[in-house]
Design brief:
Layout: H1 7-26, H2 34-39, H3 46-56, H4 61-71, H5 73-79, H6 81-101, H7 106-114, H8 116-129, H9 133-147, H10 151-163, H11 166-190, H12 192-200, H13 203-209, H14 223-232, H15 235-238, H16 240-248, H17 254-284, H18 294-302, H19 307-342, H20 351-370, H21 374-396, H22 405-428, H23 444-470
Helix pairs in contact: 1-11, 1-19, 3-11, 3-16, 3-17, 4-5, 4-17, 6-16, 6-17, 7-8, 8-19, 8-21, 8-22, 9-10, 9-19, 9-20, 9-21, 10-19, 10-20, 11-19, 12-17, 13-17, 14-21, 17-18, 19-20, 21-22, 21-23, 22-23
Length: 471
Amino acid sequence: MKIFFTVNDYLIILAYFVAMLVIGLKTKSSEDSAKDYLIAGRTLTLPAFVATLVSTFYGGILGIGEFTFNFGIAGWFLYAFPYYFFILIFAFFIAGKIRKTHLFSIPDKLNRTYGKKVSLFAAILIFFLSTPAPYLYMMGILIKFISGIGISWSMLIMLILSTVFLFKGGLRADVRVNILEFFLMFVGIGIILPFCFNSLGGIEYLESRLPGDHLSLTGGNSIQYIIVWFFIGAWVLVDPSFHQRCYAAKNKKTPKRGIIISLIFWIIFDFMTTTAGLYAKAYFLNDLPNPIYSFPALGNKLLPPIAKGIFFLGMIATIMSTLHSYIFISSNTFGRDIIARYRNETEGNVMYNRVGIIASSLFAFFLAYTIPSVINIWYTVGTLIIPALLISVISSYFEKLQVHSKYILASMIGSFSVSLIFFLLGIIYKVDGKDSLLFGLEPIYPGLITGLIIYLYGYNQRKFLKIESEQ
């Protein structure tokens, strides 16, 4: 697919990259202070908290287009609605507890509650969970469309632009660039909706062109598949970007208020992207070579010069905000929570975090190259890792739910191993050339059940020992 840009369109996009680098490179953090480098000295005000969280956690714009093109409104029901539920749980029951700990990361909390082994294993899982690979792949696609450069070179260029200001600026630089991207993503994506309505028509156009299941909540998907995506929505509870922003908040009230306000912005943005995705499906039907192209293709067809540049800028800012934020998060996980903690050198030293930027970037490039589908990366990572992290992370913040660390570690390893086995066997034993489900079960279920059984056994042992001690 060829994108037709004018000079003005290119200048609009170029201006963003220049502004991003100027803001990022002008922002410095203390060379020796982990508190300053990793969590911006705990200085995030409410507006900064909202802007950085909204932009960081909504990078999957092309994935949303892919989802909506394939499933219609069900794309919102599967991918957005479950997150609303878990975002509210996080805001009301967890966010405040995170800020009170005065720590730096999820592995920090697990290390304090359950010890080094649990912390290290969780850090390895979080490194995979926070991989920026889906966002790197989406940026590769957009830059390929805009410039004609091959997708591999496009991804490499985006990696360099996303990381160059993180080495010195840390989270402060990340947040300040996020604030710019927050405004651009709403302006950029919002600009296409009036053109869709005026050029194509309103709800009548969509009803007359869309397949029937695209206007239903389930989209023809099985109940089991729908429930899987609901559980993947629990990603919020263990997402390191949520935890990092809560640790970085200026005071204890900011996280809860900020997350609730952020949810309002996400709902608005979901309405915009879902509507645009429905128009893309109605306009192209099955004429696109890949559903992930739906937003770029729609913008290319409907928008005039300048408006087209702003729309593509909105997509770029949406993805880039998450790309560089997740590179920073996964680099901290690799550098501080894995390497430095293993060597017992987590205090004050940020050298390992900068090494982690390189390691995180290389891994993201490898994963994006080998799994060239946003939905497949999300599904694979979520299915395997979320079950292994949920119990340990949630219980660490509630003393009454905590058990001996050996049961938590066994629960995490068992959950991950069982999900992985079911996942791999489904790939090996294909049906009609497609991956199958062992015993008809999505891999997330046996993983969750295994982890829960081990945890409940440990919890029962705790109660038994408590009764014995009281006697």
